[in-house]
Write a structure and sequence with these properties.
This is DDE-1 domain-containing protein. The chain is mostly helical. The protein is about 70% helix and about 0% strand. The chain has four helices and no strands. It is globular.
Length: about 80
């Protein structure tokens, strides 16, 4: 979700500036964006949530599920501006 959020923000920015939007993303750019996600966006809470959703945890703490909802709400808010 964090990766998609970064890419969508970039696309929206290009559209607002009347720039050409790339259809394909360069693999080097993908790796760079994934690095940024890991370095700046992936919190302990996000990682625990990913493992839980992957079935690697049997804990039922619903507080972690708010991460995805917050990201989606932020994307919707930025898309309307």
């Amino acid at each position: 979700m964090h990766y998609r959020k970064r890419i969508l923000k970039e696309i929206i920015s290009a559209i607002e500036k009347n720039e050409t939007v790339q259809e394909n993303i360069d693999p080097r750019k993908t790796i760079a964006e994934l690095y940024k996600v890991w370095k700046f966006d992936a919190t302990d809470k996000t990682i625990r949530n990913c493992f839980k959703r992957g079935g690697f945890s049997n804990q039922t703490d619903d507080s972690d599920s708010d991460d995805e909802d917050a990201i989606l709400a932020d994307l919707k808010k930025n898309g309307k501006q």
